[in-house]
Specification:
Number of helices of chain A: 4
Oligomer: heterodimer
Structural class of chain B: alpha+beta
Strand order of the largest sheet of chain B: 1-6-5-4-3-2-7-8
Order of helices and strands of chain B: EEEEEEHEEHHEEHEEEEEH
Largest sheet of chain B: 8 strands, antiparallel
Structural class of chain A: alpha+beta
Strand content of chain A: 25-35%
Strand order of the largest sheet of chain A: 1-2-3-4-5-7-6
Largest sheet of chain A: 7 strands, mixed
Largest interface: A-B, 65 and 55 residues
């Protein structure tokens, strides 16, 4: 496998079979557009041929916001600058080989760079299902009170 | 819309808990004289530990404080079903923690997370309190195995949480379950994961548009058996929530048309399976690529706890091992 590289036109993004069809579909149908429009930064790991994508992540800068602003809390914290792992998937045939952890580590390093250059406080992801939640938790992400959002404080990574 | 088929799923019996509670509660006496009562907001962070290894962590918010004689009693809110009550008794230098778990009526994702922590604590054998400086208190609180969560309950909560997460619909844990509900949830999870579901069908209704009758009049005749194929949005009716399952292609084998009913704007075919029941196959349609949602909006309570955690002192992150 190659290392983590930005998605480019030479990559074949149509063959990923991660077991999560909507993630495979996003990579095949929307990832290149998201990359071109700067709505997400897509990173891939390819097979030895350097072309076939076997794992990917999509990162973007956003903020975690409070859904309901409390009355009288004009000075309270309402939004937290964040690097979001919008998508992360690994081909089923490659699961257990460390590609997911490789992408997660890359996302964490990227988040630290953002923090150093432009300020961010959290790395956040949404777990697709219970198995994904457990996967993130076992690798060090913390589970928010809603039971679906995982996060880690960037001060603890610096 | 197609109803979920009758599925013969041998796994369904694994999701039938004897109850929806867990945890080992140690009773404590409540003194008669309440000296002081107040609202409070204090985080109690419990860490399941196996030796020096941190296995799991949960954060409970203690929101009610009672001073009774010289003891202080604190209670947490219910959140996902795990609650803590704490008694601080300075006279005998004792701290007593009582954990209880009751999942019914709680959000499924939160209940599953709380159950996972409780079971991790029971498996690891001990919990520790995380101190304000981020380190663990040296004392270990032994957690007996019976404080864990019944395996069937854990499976059920994870199943509910999966359907909730995959469909992006908030589901609450029911007060009671039955095998039919579990089978429907298992079917829903398969469809949401893009997997085919095979089952049996007995009767059904297919609603066509106003031009539908002309289209099928020649093809269908009462008394003949047909294979019918529908493509439509499927759903699961769960309590008072309609859970979207996505577009599904469903094949009804051996369908006999019982009746054709014309109503304003639509035509309804009432069909039955020849011989009483026949095979049906549900296949999810091509998955929709969901765009990346740029906004992360959390409910107030969830956001507040996250913000509270942000203000805590630095602590070691296992994620650093991946850098």
């Amino acid at each position: 496998m190659t290392g983590v590289v930005p998605l480019a036109g030479v990559h074949d993004a149509t063959r990923l079979a991660s077991g999560a069809p909507e993630l495979d579909a996003w990579l095949a149908e929307q990832a290149a557009t998201a990359q071109a429009r700067d709505s997400a930064r897509v990173y891939v790991v390819t097979a030895e041929d350097g072309v076939t994508v076997v794992a990917y992540s999509a990162l973007l800068v956003t903020s975690v916001a409070r859904g309901d602003v409390p009355s009288g809390a004009a000075g309270g914290l309402r939004a937290i600058p964040t690097v979001l792992i919008g998508k992360l998937a690994v081909d089923a045939a490659q699961k257990g080989t460390g590609l997911g952890a490789l992408l997660l580590g890359h996302a964490a390093r990227t988040a630290l760079e953002v923090r150093d250059r432009a300020a961010a406080r959290l790395l956040v992801a949404h777990a697709r299902d219970v198995a994904a939640l457990d996967w993130y938790r076992r690798r060090g992400m913390r589970v928010a009170a809603d039971g679906r959002t995982v996060y880690e404080r960037l001060t603890d990574l610096a | 819309m197609p109803a979920l088929p009758e599925v013969d799923d041998p796994d369904a019996a694994l999701y039938a808990p004897t109850g929806l509670t867990g945890g080992a509660g140690l009773p404590f006496d409540v003194p008669a004289s309440v000296v002081d009562a107040a609202a409070t907001r204090t985080a109690l962070v419990l860490v399941a530990v196996r030796g020096d290894e941190e296995v799991a962590e949960t954060r409970l918010m203690l929101t009610v404080r009672l001073a009774v004689d010289d003891a202080v009693h604190l209670w947490s809110d219910r959140r996902g079903g795990l609650t803590a009550s704490v008694v601080l008794a300075p006279r005998d230098h004792r701290l007593r923690i009582n954990l209880a778990f009751a999942a019914a009526a709680r959000p499924a994702t939160e209940a599953a997370a709380d159950a996972a922590f409780l079971q991790a604590a029971a498996d690891a054998g001990a919990i520790a309190i995380r101190l304000p400086d981020g380190s663990l208190a040296p004392d270990r609180i032994a957690v007996p195995a019976e404080a864990g969560v019944e395996p069937a309950l854990l499976r059920l909560l994870n199943l509910l949480a999966d359907v909730s997460l995959l469909s992006r619909t908030e589901l609450t844990v029911p007060a009671e379950t039955d095998e039919e509900l579990v089978k429907d949830l298992l079917t829903a999870r398969r469809l949401l994961n893009g997997q085919e579901v095979r089952g049996r069908w007995r009767t059904g209704e297919i609603v066509l548009g106003p031009g539908g009758l002309d289209a099928v009049r020649e093809a269908l005749a009462a008394g003949d058996a047909h294979e019918l194929v529908t493509v439509s949005e499927s759903h699961l009716d769960y309590m008072d929530v309609r859970v979207p399952l996505g577009e599904v292609r469903q094949v009804y084998a051996n369908a006999e048309v019982e009746e054709v009913v014309e109503r304003p704007g639509e035509v309804v075919l009432r069909v039955r399976a020849r011989g009483g029941s026949a095979e049906t196959v549900m296949t999810p349609a091509a998955p929709r690529a969901e765009p990346v949602e740029p906004d992360v909006v959390l409910p107030g309570r969830v956001f507040d706890e996250l913000a509270h955690d942000l203000a805590e002192p630095p602590r070691r992150s296992r994620l650093r091992d991946l850098l």
